[in-house]
């Protein structure tokens, strides 16, 4: 149940457009991440299993949509081989995120709110890794 990749990907990718131009701040990926963030914030506080499962599904929807996008930082990579590697890393992290959100949904459906808390808590340590991979230093 402990899959800390969600928070890492979520935090890293949601901040990527903020480091670029004003146009980047309103990219499709940024908008999807904002919506996923709203669902994430809501489900981590939710105690009603049905509502929590619905919020987890909502977050899944935006994570799946985000999987098809490419972060601005990755788009800027000039070397084709390095760019391809970065894209694969992003896709893998997003796919793991979808799995984690399914685990959250499953925990809610099983009425195991404490498992949701455990999943959410385990994600916090991965934020640093996500930032190192996808957010440039200022």
Keywords:
138 residues, mainly alpha, 72% helix
**Total of helices:** 7
Rg on CA atoms, Å: 15 Å
Order of helices and strands, N to C? HHHHHHH
- The separation of the N and C termini measures 34 Å
Structural class by secondary-structure content: mainly alpha
Q: Assembly type of the shown chains?
A: single chain
Low-confidence stretches: 4-9, 11-24
3D shape? elongated
Would you write up a description of this structure?
The radius of gyration is 15 Å and the shape is elongated. 72% of the residues lie in helices and 0% in strands. The relative contact order is 0.23. The chain is an all-alpha fold and 138 residues long. Mean pLDDT is 79; it is low at 4-9 and 11-24. The N and C termini lie far apart (34 Å). The chain contains 7 helices and no strands. α1 crosses α2 (28-43) and α3 packs antiparallel against α5 (80-109).
């Amino acid at each position: 149940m402990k899959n800390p990749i969600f928070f890492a990907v979520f935090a890293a990718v949601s901040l990527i457009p903020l480091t670029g131009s004003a146009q980047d701040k309103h990219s499709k990926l940024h908008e999807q991440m904002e919506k996923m963030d709203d669902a994430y914030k809501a489900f981590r506080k939710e105690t009603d299993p049905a509502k929590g499962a619905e919020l987890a599904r909502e977050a899944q929807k935006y994570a799946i949509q985000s999987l098809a996008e490419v972060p601005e930082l990755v788009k800027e990579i000039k070397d084709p081989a390095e760019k391809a590697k970065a894209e694969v890393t992003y896709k893998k992290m997003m796919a793991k995120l979808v799995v984690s959100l399914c685990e959250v949904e499953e925990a809610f459906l099983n009425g195991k709110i404490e498992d949701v808390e455990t999943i959410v808590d385990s994600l916090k340590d991965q934020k640093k890794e996500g930032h190192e991979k996808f957010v440039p230093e200022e």
